[in-house]
Design a protein that fits this description.
By secondary structure, this protein is α/β, with parallel strands linked by helices. The protein contains 7 helices and 5 strands, in the order βαβααβαβααβα.
């Protein structure tokens, strides 16, 4: 079984993904880490040196490679992976998609001090909040195509939702 966790930056995809993978005895895959390994650069360096388009191409290629693999896993996708190059279709056709839905205010609290998110770079907290709101509004139509939507997710809620879908 392939389980894809999708959602905004700060929604807990990596944190919950690791816990979920451990509970389900499945390997955990962080798509951003896979991109960094492939490119031998951090996500921030890729954006700075090659731009978002290049990043999205590599992201899409790796998503498709993992989606086509025979193995089961729990994947924390990057926040944009479902939103570009038919990512949500690839995800939904090859596994179970779980949208970790949190209010923008909570997301902001979680990413407020994070300097490693290229699309959320801003000097002022109000600017970061505005960027987060804009991103959220633009991505929601993709996220809502997930098989499962979980408000204010935790491991128990995600496990229960997955078990109901099995």
């Amino acid at each position: 079984m392939k389980i894809y966790l999708i959602g905004m930056p700060g929604s807990g995809k990596s944190t919950l993904g690791k816990q979920l993978a451990e509970t389900l005895l499945l390997p955990f895959v962080d798509l951003d880490n896979e991109i960094e390994q492939r490119e031998h650069k951090s996500v921030q360096q890729i954006f700075a040196e090659h731009g978002e388009d290049h990043f999205r191409q590599v992201e899409s290629q790796l998503l498709r490679e993992w989606a086509g693999a025979e193995k089961s896993f729990v994947m924390a996708t990057g926040g944009g992976a479902p939103c570009f190059l038919q990512g949500i279709e690839v995800i939904n056709q090859t596994g179970l998609s779980v949208f970790l839905d949190l209010p923008v205010r909570e997301l902001l609290r979680r990413v407020a001090r994070d300097k490693n998110r290229p699309l959320l770079q801003a000097d002022e907290l109000s600017d970061k909040e505005a960027r987060l709101k804009t991103l959220h509004e633009g991505r929601l139509k993709y996220y809502q195509q997930a098989h499962v939507v979980i408000d204010r997710p935790d491991v128990k809620k995600v496990l229960k939702a997955i078990r109901l879908r099995m």
